[in-house]
Design a protein that fits this description.
By secondary structure, the chain is mainly α. The protein has helices at residues 12-40, 60-92, 100-104, 119-127, 129-141, 152-157; strands spanning 107-110, 160-163. The longest helix is centred in the middle third of the chain and has 33 residues, at 60-92.
Length: 171
């Protein structure tokens, strides 16, 4: 009998489920906290999507109006990116080692020994998610094929995502 500890790396499926729950939480935060905060600061932005279908051609008028629309939603996009990065970084570097979505599914983020990551490592990890999302989300999909189920942002930050519960895994 061997004393080797078997590490149960969280599968792509469990990580995706956790992220979906986190996305719902972040969306609620945006509706309840961020939008009113931006309004209180005097930001005036549109609350409707850009109407692509109302243009017959992509001419100068189209690009001018698209630029105006982007200028109006930019504060919300930036606030959302900052909130998302801080949400994950603060929670994953805390004693919980997990976002709220990860907690629900028994998933934790840590170093190779399972120890808690410093805030800076979590910040790097979560800022690197931008790279993971480039080119058809290949950086995220790497968790399907890498030995320790690491996505690109995990490899960059030296992080591992483990599941404390036995796997009845949704691959």
């Amino acid at each position: 009998m061997t004393d080797e500890k078997i590490i149960n790396y969280a599968s792509f499926g469990w990580r995706l489920l956790a992220y979906i729950l986190d996305a719902i939480i972040l969306q609620l935060m945006q509706i309840i906290v961020i939008v009113p905060f931006l309004f209180s600061l005097g930001f005036d932005f549109v609350d409707v999507p850009f109407d692509w279908e109302s243009y017959e051609r992509y001419d100068d008028l189209f690009f001018k109006e698209l630029e105006l629309w982007i200028d109006q939603v930019r504060p919300l996009i930036i606030a959302g990116l900052i909130t998302q990065t801080l949400y994950f970084s603060l929670l994953e570097s805390s004693y919980l080692q997990a976002s709220l979505g990860k907690l629900v599914f028994g998933i934790k983020v840590g170093d190779q020994q399972g120890a808690r990551l410093d805030f800076l490592y979590c910040l790097v990890r979560n800022m690197s998610k931008f790279l993971s999302s480039l080119i058809f989300m290949i950086g995220y999909l790497m968790a399907l094929v890498t030995k320790n189920k690491q996505a690109l942002h995990d490899l960059i930050a030296g992080s591992y995502v483990v599941r404390s519960m036995p796997d009845s895994d949704p691959h």
